[in-house]
Amino acid sequence: MTGSSMIRGSLTALMWGVAATGAMAQSSPFDMSPERPAQTAPAPVSPPVIPPAVPRQQPPASTPVQPSAPPPFAVQPAPASQPPVASPAPAVAVPPLQEGARPAPPRSSSSAADSRRRYILPYEKLSLSGEMDRRQWGIYLTPEQAGAAVSLNIGYQNAIVVAPESSNFQVSLNNVPLDAARIEAPDGEGNVSLKIPPGVLQVGTNLVTLGVQQRHRTDCTIQSTYDLWTDVNPANTYIGFNADVAGTFANMDDIQATGPDGKATTSIEIVAPALGNPAFADSLLRLSQALALRTQMPNQTIRFVTAPSTERKAGTLTVLVGTAREITGLAGVLPPEASAGAFAGFGTAAPGGLSPLFVSGPTPQAVQAAIETLFSSISRTPGAQRTTFSTRSWHAPDVPLIMSDRRIALSELGLESTEFSGRRFRNEFYIGLPADFYASAYGEASLLLDAAYSSQVLPGSHIDIYVNDQIASTVPISNNGGGIFRHLPINVTMRHLKPGPNKVTIEAVLMTAQDQTCAPGAPASTTPRFALFDTTEIHIPDYARIGRKPDLAAMAGAGQPYRAAGSPVALSLDRFDTDTMSAAATLISRLASVAGHPINVETVASPLVIGDRDALFVGTVSQFPQALISQFNLAPSSQVAWKVGTGVQPPVQNSETLFNDWRQRVDGGVWEGQVSSFEEWMKRNFDLSSDTLRFLPAAEQPYAPPANVSFMLAQGLSPSGDGVWTLATAPTSAELLDGMSAMTRENRWGDVTGRVAAYDAAAEKVETVEVERPYFYITGAFSLSNWRLIAANWLSSNVLSYSLAFIGFVSLLGFATFVMLRLMGRHR
Question: If you write DSSP's letter for every residue of 275-343 in order, what string do you get?
Fold first, then answer.
């Protein structure tokens, strides 16, 4: 009896255990703890990729599965119906994620996912700020990519103060709006996936518009609009394909479809077995320019290697260059045409999907002929007049080049008429200026404003104009009851303009009684308060045009003076290794891109044979002769003291430099304090400084790069002053390549001005040294009007010289009047 009771007790306990286990199994789907992914580990990680023609049962391994409901024990295929955010068709290879969901970490560039993703963001860092903001650029798609595109994915994170119920993305492709998506990822990176309707994308260039509309959760002040931001991650912003077409190219036009990688970088990897041969250097540099002009991406890096990578990498164009004998077997199958004559084209994809570009032939002469064929559809005569800067890959449309008096409507610059119901309206456009632009001290442009504001807008509101993020003009709104501006002229100073593309921003700060009240829980206003019409025009008058040297801004903006036709530009390298050659090719390709045509370059064996022609020097600072370093007005000690350690004593400064340094440091003191206060008062009230109040420009001071600088561009003159020399240098070869890649990125290249541009890698910023005494040279035909404008700008920069000239002219006029009266007076 006791035994039976024990048996019954054991069975009862076993049944309770099974029931408890079942209860736990039922509750497990609601377990949101971080350990849940570990429980689903037995699920297959890399299922085979199913061809598009076969009905798909589960998503590919390249994209993490996001089930609509947590599975109980085993991982099940994702259901056919995904969340309502623009679900792709059943054949979509990249399924959407739920809005606001945190994505799985992106896989490495070697992942198979990259074959079905086309990264599209050309910006290393993109922050869409304020109540409204947008970017617009173009991407090139091959026929296979245009047909296989099914979704647009955006990875982002926003400020916690952004109200998700009234904030959303505004995305369009070729001016066709995609579905709206909320902005609701303040705690971590979120994803939205938008379906691309069939037929929206086309073969060739496609226009991408990415914008946001954001509202604050609680605050109604103008200041609160500066707290609104959404950061877009380039690694998770891409077009998804339903086939492996991302890096497969067939013809030469497909080079434009290389695009960026997950860090917004485009890499051109040139495999050259004959890289160590100096005689082949000119051909390799010309090849790099041809490829850069075809891709036209803003953040391009040229890298020379002796063997190709075995994996497919997004945003990378792999090029094999050399004779057929040299490159046979390196990657893929070499087309038989390469053994018969000059050949430039794509071959059969190698194992792993690599689709390399072959530039080959049976002889070195045939290889050079193959390189020249790459210029067939992009060639332009050096020195020929162009009308635009090619900016479509990072800003669309292309920026117009304004050479003389011209009025351009905003509709021609990519802006549309816009109504706005928020507190701070902001929109921007670009204009371009030539390399010999010289009107930074006297000139004024005009913005002929077509706009309107409602009766809600209170006096005290204002419209601000910024040029390259510097305030240039302000127009107050002082009327009640609303108003309309019809071609209202707003004078905009030209002091912040520079050669190349220039950004102009229109900002309207709108104050209303509703925002001052800021009732809790009140809905955001939807009634338009402000409107900007695309009939608004920017008027650039005739301005002074004369070349200056040295001038890194002219080089960075338009490739001056290396873009001019004539004798080849001399290139001196301290060595022919991969890092130095890659750095030189990256710089020259960047110059070719801003110039709009290839730069005629000739490598030289020694700086001593350059003479007085224009030249480029690329290498580590310690390898160049000291006489060459002094030619750039750099401190001779830079070759030893630049980042070599604390044991090296810094150079002794001269008394004048040391005095000026202490003058800036000391706040007190009777004499120095009075001078500093007087200078600050003059600067604040009359915009005059010690640099302005001078008879002649000050002498150039030698520059010694500080320890925080890792790369430097410096420009000087040849010994006779006829040629312009540019030096790209760093302490080591590795820093030379990394610094060149960082400096030539679009977000930093525009900061290259003056005679020295030094890059601080830790702070990711560019420090410049302005030119004190530039040399002027004529760039066009003689014009009395132009010389008058040149004199006006120079005298405006040197006020005391202007005052002296004015006093001399008045004295001469008085003396002439006195003499005339003596000769023709009444006593005669």
Answer: TT-GGGHHHHHHHHHHHHHHH--SSEEEEEESS--SS--TTEEEEEEEEHHHHTTTSSB--GGGGTS-E
pLDDT-derived band of residue 648, with 50, 70 and 90 as boundaries?
A: very low
Backbone angles phi, psi at 537, to 5 degrees: -125, 150
**Residue 566, pLDDT score:** 78
Whether residue 254 contacts residue 203, with contact meaning beta carbons closer than 8 Å, is answered with no
CA pair distance 548, 557, nearest whole angstrom: 13
Number of C-beta neighbours around residue 319 at 10 A? 23
By CB neighbour count within 10 A (0-12 exposed, 13-18 middle, 19+ buried), where does 824 fall?
exposed
pTM: 0.80
Task: Collapse the DSSP code of 411 into the 3-class scheme (helix H, G, I; strand E, B; otherwise coil) and give the result.
Answer: helix
Query: Each residue of 328-351: pLDDT tens digit?
Result: 878 777 888 988 999 999 987 654
Tokens standing for 669? Answer: 């003191």
In angstroms, the CA 575 to CA 77 distance is 57
Number of H helices, E strands in the chain: 17, 36
* pLDDT score at 102: 32
Collapse the DSSP code of 214 into the 3-class scheme (helix H, G, I; strand E, B; otherwise coil) and give the result. Answer: coil
Neighbours of 437 (CB within 10 A): 27
Q: For residue 212, what is the enclosing H or E element? A: strand 204-213
- Decide: 57 and 44 in contact? Cβ < 8 Å: no
| Cα torsion angle, 435, 585, 351, 331, sign | positive
Query: How do residues 554-607 score in pLDDT, each as one tens digit?
Result: 999 999 999 887 789 999 998 888 999 999 999 999 999 999 999 999 999 888
List Cβ neighbours of 37 (8 Å cut-off, separation of 6 or more): none
DSSP string of 461-530, one letter each residue: EEEEEEETTEEEEEEEE--SS-EEEEEEEEEEE-TT--SEEEEEEEEEE--BHHHHH--TTPPPP-S--E
428-462: pLDDT as tens digits: 999 999 999 999 888 899 999 999 999 999 999 99
- Secondary structure in 3-state letters for 89-152: CCCCCCCCCCCCCCCCCCCCCCCHHHHHEEECCCCCCEEEECCEEEEEEEEEECHHHHHHEEEE
Q: Exposed, middle or buried by CB within 10 Å (0-12, 13-18, 19+), for 100? A: buried
Kindly state the tokens that stand for 238.
Answer: 């891409």
Q: Which residues have a Cβ under 8 Å from the Cβ of 29 and sit 6 or more positions away?
A: 69, 70, 71, 72
Task: Please report how the helices 578-595 and 733-743 are oriented relative to each other, as an axis angle in degrees rounded to 10.
Answer: 20
pLDDT tens-digit profile of 168-225? Answer: 999 999 999 999 999 999 999 999 999 999 999 999 999 999 999 999 998 889 999 9
User: CA–CA separation, 342 vs 331, rounded Å?
Assistant: 19
Residue 792 to residue 65: CA distance in whole angstroms: 67
Phi-psi region of 332 (alpha: psi -120 to 50; beta: other; left: phi over 0): left
Q: In the block, which residue shows the tokens 């419209």?
A: 463
- Cα 331 to its chain centre, rounded Å, is 32
pLDDT at 520: 66
Sequence length of the chain is 828
Range 776-814 burial, b when 16+ CB lie within 10 A, else e: eeebeeeeeebeebbebbbbbbbbeebeeeeeeeeeeee
Cα–Cα dist 553/726, whole Å: 12
Residue 729 CA neighbour count, 13 Å, CB half: 28
- 142: tokens are 């091959």
d(C-alpha 326, C-alpha 293), whole Å: 26
Can you read off the two tokens belonging to residue 415? 């802006």
What is the spatial distance between Cα 710 and Cα 701, in angstroms, rounded to a whole number?
A: 21
